[in-house]
């Protein structure tokens, strides 16, 4: 019987995420908030009905890969190229400011008599590592929220996507540098070389695949299931290669795969198939799994104070850092707010970074609880704040070529009807 429990787990997750998603929608909040709350409610931090299993973890990983693949399919390549330099500046500011903020908070609290740490490395490295944790950005939460609101194809949406991907790379570099100081087996130069080689590999392989795939699908009279299957195969292979061969996050590979296929004639057909796969199973499990990972420890008064300050700093450093980067690059004030808020969520990325640091003796066990709470709060408030900031300012939707063509056709038909 135990071997079939995953079926019950899936049924409970899908039901609860949808019920709570509809409930949050009724109070004018994105449904993804309900999915996150469902994971918290069902997980060990509250009711304890479900725990994370290897099966759920694998399905969740597949869920975030498909989510980022769909984000790549929906991205406007021309707009992304325009915002490339800006995305780098935004990501750089969104890494530097949180590192400084996290280090400052840890400097005041990580002391004997205040919060005693059992970490094995120096206090300076411990404090710096808290800052590195705050650099993480979980773009998957933002992507799902923007898709739900229909705001992914905006100037702000494209800037967030570009900055988040670069943020991921810069986060890897920052983590590598800080861990290399505590672990001599880590070589910074090798890691940087692997990152560069991955993008070279993705560019070459992506170009070859694009030529073959474009010719293949254009030879068919309509979109077919085989087109979607081969697209998925390509996505999974690039995701695997990114993580296993080059040490780059698999979601970065999935996003690049989506970008490559977005230039083809049947991209909307492919996207419709993956959207169904995502909302039907994979996305609910992924968002619920974030809540299932959360286990809140016993908290002392000092730990609670540290947690409150860390949450505030985690939110403000991303808003200020990324917003400042956007301002430097000429974005309007309302766009700066959208971009800053879109980068707040830490999600599962921060948990992975924290776990790695704890294993290397770079973070005391007393600090894991506050980090978990930062992840929970930033993950839940990001969709809520996104909805608020996107209400202010114009809806600068970027129409694709097909939308423009359809628009001109309708205008032409209207003129014929009116004037003959």
Automatic annotation (TrEMBL):
The chain crosses the membrane at residues 31-49, 55-74, 86-108, 128-146, 158-182, 188-213, 225-242, 304-326, 371-390. InterPro entries: Cation/H_exchanger_TM (IPR006153), Na+/solute_symporter_sf (IPR038770). It is a multi-pass membrane protein. The keyword Ubl conjugation does not apply. Coiled coil: none annotated. Residues 14-392 form the Cation/H+ exchanger transmembrane domain. Signal peptide: none annotated. Pfam families: Na_H_Exchanger. Its main location: membrane. Belongs to the monovalent cation:proton antiporter 2 (CPA2) transporter (TC 2.A.37) family. PANTHER family: NAPA-TYPE SODIUM/HYDROGEN ANTIPORTER (PTHR43562), SODIUM ION_PROTON EXCHANGER (EUROFUNG) (PTHR43562:SF3). This is Cation:proton antiporter. It comes from Lachnospira intestinalis. The lineage of its organism: Bacteria, Bacillati, Bacillota, Clostridia, Lachnospirales.
